[in-house]
Amino acid sequence: MLLSYQDPIVKLVGDWAYDINVWSVILRVVLACLIGGIIGAERASKHHVAGLRTYILVCLGSCAAMMTNQFISDSADVARLGAGVVTGIGFLGAGTIMVTSRNQVRGLTTAAALWACGCVGLAIGIGFYTMAIAAAIVILLALVLLPKIEQSLQDRAKLVDIHIELLSRPDLKKLLEYV
């Protein structure tokens, strides 16, 4: 092992979980599918565009890229594939962001969650299991609990957003005269 830090889960189950072998590959693939699936199921339950399959594929693809990176690390730049994954998921996430007809931004949380899920996949792929599991728990808490806190804060806010749509310029003049 090149790192001085050893993951507690690797210490618990043995060094085989860090090295690239059949059993560690199976462990990482299953863990990536499980974590991606849990996060994706939460998003799907709220009817978001990116759901169960998308999150599984993002987490699994990131994990596979990082395992490939670890496998070829003797002959390549060890950060190259991981950096490519982060960039690629950024583009994927950008596709989930849209501005509605009312000039409201939608999909930003989904994009951020996809990116975070990809980073979790990278951590699993390199064998940093403890961080991956901890990050997945925090991602889920942010997706499940924080909307309730946000809503509570918005309900208590003293600001009011008003959106007015007018059909023509003369209507704007009439509105301004009225106000």
Provide structural commentary.
The protein is mainly alpha-helical and 179 residues long. The protein contains eight helices and two strands; from the N terminus they run ααααββαααα. It has a two-stranded antiparallel sheet.
List keywords for this structure.
179 residues; mainly alpha; 8 helices
Proportion in β-strands: under 5%
Q: What is the succession of H and E elements?
A: HHHHEEHHHH
Helix content: 55-70%
Separate helix tally: 8
C-alpha termini separation:
71 Å
What are the segments in which pLDDT stays under 50 over at least 5 consecutive residues? none
Rounded to an integer in angstroms, the radius of gyration calculated over CA atoms is: 22 Å
Q: Topology, pairings included?
A:
Blueprint: H1 8-13, H2 22-45, H3 52-71, H4 80-94, E1 98-99, E2 105-106, H5 108-126, H6 129-144, H7 146-156, H8 169-178
Antiparallel strand pairs: 1-2
Helix pairs in contact: 2-3, 2-5, 2-6, 3-4, 3-5, 4-5, 5-6
In short:
The protein is 68% helix and 2% strand. With 179 residues, the protein is mainly alpha-helical.
